[in-house]
Specification:
22 helices; binds ligand C2E; alpha/beta; Alpha-Beta Plaits; binds calcium ion; single chain; five-stranded mixed beta sheet
């Protein structure tokens, strides 16, 4: 039963089978009825009507036999008698023939009894024969004889034959009536069957409509709405658990899939839009990115090719942004970048393009009057610098930071005719602005490009020089001012380039710092100096090594340098490190850790170039320097400049009050030596004592001493 509840196919199959069964039943019943009716009709025809006709003919023959009997009775000649008897005999023969025919017809019908008729006829014919025999010569009163007993016998036979006819008629009527009834019943059954078949067919059609057509229509409508984009269309409750129910359920799955597909499509479109935006915009500030800038620049280039137009390309790099990021955190850094981006947007004109190139670098493409673009550029740069310089108050904190910017400017078409060249030109100009003091702007000049290329070549040469050992230490004497005795040397790096000649450390040391090669340079100088010193006669002579500011942020510095001393068997107590004041602008904690490590190993630490940077008393005390080196600029100008002398006095008194000896750099004259000695300066260094010299010259000097 469950199958018929869950399967339309099973139900329809059952209904069609029932309909077919009814039709087959109809056909079989009709065939049977026709066969029976045909049999009975044939029987009535062949048996009962034939029997009735036979008996009828028998009756006729009997009457004619009686008439012949009458002729016999009335015959008055022997000849007539004979003829009448012959006639009677013929009729008797016919009667007997009919009788036996009738008996043959009724042979199988036990109900019909012809025995009384046969007996009556036998008695009648016997009486007739007796009457004839009695009247051989016509002597008797024949007619009287004919009417008497003979008449009675005749009437018996005639009555029996009539009764037989009547019986036959009744029987054939009964048979015909039974056929009628049968046909009536059959028609009834057929009508019922046909009605049942029609009802079944109607039911079948109704079920097809209710079970299939109607729900299919509902599902089709829902599907059409779904296809038209109505993703919230609901399938009306069909409450079915057959194929249609499965289809309705499948629709829900389909709709859910369509919804999911649409959601996925929407997400994809959103992601694509987002990706397109990301591809064109800087995610932090929302400004266009480098790609967009390059495209805009290309448009400008194309425009300039066809019209007397000019464009300005400005590259803006923020100054002092790195400390904001490092000290205030990246969130503050991001905030500052966004704020600066807004300010830049406020400054530029509508139609100009402003983009973030990355990090703290921005760029602007602005249209300009070809006859006055230089003035326009300077005005724009100044407005930008003023906007950037204003303090940025960091949201949700009491802090404000001040950043500046260096701006490089290139002009289209003067400085280049393609986006790449123009951006590079503006970039070069920006670097020049940065190098020349920051917070300012520079127009691109051809010479800048040459210098930059030169710088790049120098960088390549420096790398090679460092690894080929082209850079070697020279040594400048350090003297005890009171006794005049040589107590040590400052290691000063020297680079003699085969083509360039001598390259100054002021030139190559900053490059080595920028290239990240400064620790290699320092280590190489120390190792070479230790080896050189091992050949010198004076085993107590001290060496002073310059440490670059960037190295004081590198925790690995002690681990790099101390093993060299051990490997080269140079006593740490003979080494001094010179740290410039600018080194203290970085992370003071790391610097302190590094310096403490060295001091624990027995190495002394001097504060180099004192007075030129911004080290505070706090730094001096906190980092526990062993010595202070007064920058040579004060010493050199001391003789001419009263202010410088006051600074030298102040440094000396400060150092002495903190218990630190001082070293005066840049002593070129005897007079400077005397004045500094008089002021109580402990140590001195300068051309007066000697310039930086080679290791061999040091050996000669020490041997002579
Ligand atoms: P600094 O550490 O201040 O070195 C002293 C500089 O003053 C040296 O210049 C020296 O030649 C010069 N000088 C010495 N006495 C006098 C004098 O009486 N008059 C004048 N006018 N100058 C004098 P140099 O060798 O050109 O070195 C320049 C700077 O390069 C150094 O300044 C130092 O900061 C840096 N430097 C040199 N070698 C190295 C090194 O190996 N490592 C590091 N990190 N820096 C080095
Ligand atoms: Ca130095
Ligand atoms: Ca110095």
């Amino acid at each position: 039963m469950k199958l018929f509840r869950t399967s339309i196919r099973a139900r329809l199959t059952l209904l069609v089978c029932a309909l077919c069964g009814l039709l087959i039943f109809l056909a079989v019943v009709s065939a049977l009825i026709l066969t029976v009716v045909d049999g009975i009709t044939e029987e009535i025809d062949n048996k009962w009507l034939a029997a009735t006709q036979t008996i009828d003919e028998l009756g006729d023959s009997l009457e004619e036999f009686r008439v012949a009997e009458g002729y016999r009775a009335l015959a008055h000649s022997a000849d007539m008698r004979l003829r009448a008897e012959a006639l009677a005999a013929g009729h008797r023969h016919a009667i007997l023939a009919h009788l036996s025919h009738y008996a043959a017809l009724m042979r199988n019908d036990g109900d019909t009894d012809i025995v009384p008729l046969r007996n009556a006829l036998t008695r009648y014919f016997a009486a007739h024969d007796a009457w004839i025999s009695a009247d051989v010569d016509g002597e008797i009163d024949a007619p009287a004889g004919m009417n008497g007993a003979l008449q009675a016998r005749y009437q018996d036979a005639e009555a029996l034959s009539d009764r037989l006819i009547e019986a036959n008629r009744v029987t054939s009527h009964a048979r015909a009536a039974s056929v009628d009834r049968l046909v009536d019943n059959a028609i009834g059954v057929l009508v019922i069957t046909v009605v049942a078949a029609i009802l079944l067919a109607i039911w079948l059609v109704a079920r097809v409509h209710i079970d299939i057509a109607f729900p299919l229509g509902t599902i089709t409508r829902s599907l059409s709405r779904l296809a038209a984009g109505d993703r919230n269309v609901r399938m009306p409750a069909l409450d079915r658990n057959d194929e249609i129910g499965e289809m309705a359920n499948a629709f829900d799955v389909f709709r859910a899939n369509a919804q999911a597909l649409e959601a996925a499509h929407c997400a994809l479109t959103a992601a694509e839009t987002h990706a397109q935006r990301l591809a064109r915009h800087d995610p932090l500030t929302g400004l266009p990115n480098r790609r967009v800038l390059a495209a805009e620049l290309q448009k400008a280039v194309d425009h300039v090719a066809h019209a007397p137009q000019a464009y300005l390309v400005l590259v803006i790099d923020l100054d002092r942004f790195k400390p904001v990021n490092d000290l205030q955190g990246h969130a503050a850094g991001d905030f500052v970048l966004c704020e600066i981006a807004r300010r830049l947007e406020d400054v530029v004109r509508k139609g100009d393009t402003i983009a973030r190139l990355g990090g703290d670098e921005f760029a602007i493409v602005a249209q300009a009057d070809p006859l006055a673009y230089a003035d326009a550029a300077m005005q724009l740069a100044n407005r930008l610098l003023a906007a950037i310089r204003k303090p940025v108050f960091i949201a949700d904190s009491q802090l404000y930071v001040e950043v500046g910017a260096s701006i490089g400017i290139a002009a289209l078409p003067n400085d280049g005719r393609d986006p790449e060249t123009l951006l590079r030109a503006a970039d070069i100009a920006m670097y020049r602005a940065k190098r020349e003091g920051k917070g300012t702007s520079r127009f691109f000049e051809e010479s800048m490009d040459r210098e930059l290329r030169e710088q790049a070549l120098l960088e390549i040469d420096l790398r090679r020089a460092l690894f080929d050992g082209q850079i070697h230490p020279h040594y400048q004497p350090l003297v005890d001012m009171q006794s005049g005795a040589l107590y040590g040397f400052e290691i000063l790096a020297r680079w003699h380039h085969p083509v360039r000649g001598d390259v100054a450390p002021d030139v190559f040391v900053p490059i080595a710092e920028n290239l990240g090669l400064i620790s290699e340079l320092t280590a190489a100088m120390l190792r070479r100096a230790c080896r050189d010193a091992s050949a010198w006669p004076d085993t107590a002579i001290r060496l002073s090594l310059n440490i670059s500011p960037t190295q004081l942020n590198d925790r690995c510095l002690p681990a790099q340098l101390l093993p060299i001393l051990a490997e080269e068997r140079f006593a740490p107590s003979r080494l001094e490190l010179e740290i410039t004041e600018t080194a203290l602008a970085g992370d003071i904690k790391i610097a302190k850790t590094i310096l403490t490590d060295f001091q624990r190993a027995g190495i002394k630490v001097s504060l180099d170039d004192f007075g030129t940077g911004y080290s505070s008393l706090y730094h001096l005390r906190e980092l526990k320097f062993d010595k202070v080196k007064i920058d040579k600029s004060f010493v050199l100008s001391m003789q001419r400049d009263n202010e410088s002398e006051k600074i030298v006095d102040a440094i000396l008194s400060l150092a002495h009050s903190l218990g630190m000896p001082a070293v005066a750099e840049g002593i070129e004259t005897r007079e400077a030596l005397h004045r500094l000695r008089a002021k109580g300066c402990e140590y001195g260094q300068g051309y007066h004592f000697g310039k930086a010299m080679s290791a061999r010259d040091v050996a000669t000097l020490l041997c002579e001493a």
